[in-house]
Amino acid sequence: MHGVGDEPALQTRGLDVSYGWVVAARDVSLAVDPGELVALVGPNGAGKSSVLHAILGHVAHSGDVVLHGRSCGRRHRTDVAFVPQRQAVELDFPITVAQVVACGRRPFVRFARRPGREDRQAIAQALSRVGLDGLEHRPIGELSGGQAQRVFIARAIAQQADVLLLDEPLTGVDAPTARSLLELFCVLCDSGAAIVVTTHDLGLVRERFGRCVALNQTVVGDGDPRDVLGPAGLERMLAHA
Amino acid sequence: MPDVTGWLTDPYAFDFMRRALLASLLVGAIAPLVGVWIVLRRLAYLGDAMSHATLSGVAVAYLAGWSITLGAVAAGLVMAALMALLASHPRLQEDSIIGTVSVGLFATAIILISSQDSIGVDLSHFLLGSVTTVTPADLTLNAILGGLAALAILVVFSDLRAASFDPLHAGLVGIRVGAMRCALYATLAVTVVLALQTVGLLVAVALLVIPAAAARLWTRTVAAMSMLAAALGVTACLAGLTLSLHAASPPGATIALVAVALLAGSFVATRPRRGTRAAAHVADLHPANAS
Q1: Is this structure's pTM higher than 0.80?
Q2: Domains and CATH numbers, chain B
Q3: Which of A151, B8, B51, B249 is most enclosed, with most CB atoms within 10 A?
């Protein structure tokens, strides 16, 4: 919990998302402090991705998204970074690792200008932090799944975003890769980032996360994963909404 | 030994032939630069649809006595604007929008043409291309339009790359993804008009899509793909036009066939050998070896 005077890095208040008549999420309120790593879990269709996309401003929603105490409205949310699901991005696109990470520098580069020395340094540092030094000029399509996830995390670091949303980054990667990604999340949290990860891997959540938010259209559990994912919590999470 | 230089230069002894060559080289260089983005965004169908839609502008301009080229550009821009308008509805998919708008404009063109018997023959120039009738004024206008299209692509290059690769993130960092799409459509409209006169409406898509698709097989970045696509487009136009003048075949169709041959050659030369695509999966299983 955050005390009086220090704002959560990310807060949603009464977030509702619907697509026509279909309600994807309703009255979702949660707060994530700086340095906190949160797993967002729920069955397919529970509204996990919808909540992330509402926070990012990608889908129409009602309710508030508050970043560091300031309501977002319609402005660009450059202090939030997003790591998409692997299949959501065309990894065969002819773009190099450095060019992907450079996209994170866009808020700092004027229109139609090339990244300057400072930007190039930020790109190199971001790649170094995720352990991808030396792969700058490699097309992203030639990397493994785990490495591609790291490139998107490096893009978030280069963007200097302190709220990081990752949509199922642990899906489709093997156990050692998942462990190394989680270690990286912890390092980023230690430096003050607030990280929200959607995942279906409840075993990994119980083992490696300090906090878990269970969604079934609305928040049905929030706290220690061992409590949230206990028998009663699982029943609430998997119940038909 | 055959006189290769003579074979290449003989057809261009006359001014109108040299203008044909310049017009072809211009479109051969510019169309693939735009085509790269059409290929990367999987919008090859849009290139074909846009070329059909521009016929409505050609017909209106012909009947009103305006510049045919500018009429075609205007029709292309109308198509781009209508597409942007319809895209605002979340349940209308892009391919449905493209089909509807282009058929609407093409059908308008057919009705206008069928109402005026006299314009049928002249419009066939736009269907099949008529590169040998390019006037100096046409060439100047084409150079201005082509230059503007290339400049537009160059100015927005990195934003267009970001928006094409990951539009969600691009929007997040302040890139106007919708504006990028409209700019691309407008540039495409201009490029299609350049291609109308050279290769004709029916095979305009050849210069938009084929050199870019062939270049994709050889290259690993968009910049390299763009440069190679332009080089392949110029090669197709130069070889196709020269061949057509020797063989007395239709220039547009010959250029299109040379482009197809370049793609076929690229396919054979770059086809992955069995087993090479497994490398990334091996890296997934053994991340320690991956880097």
Answers
A1: yes
A2: 4-268 (1.10.3470.10)
A3: B51
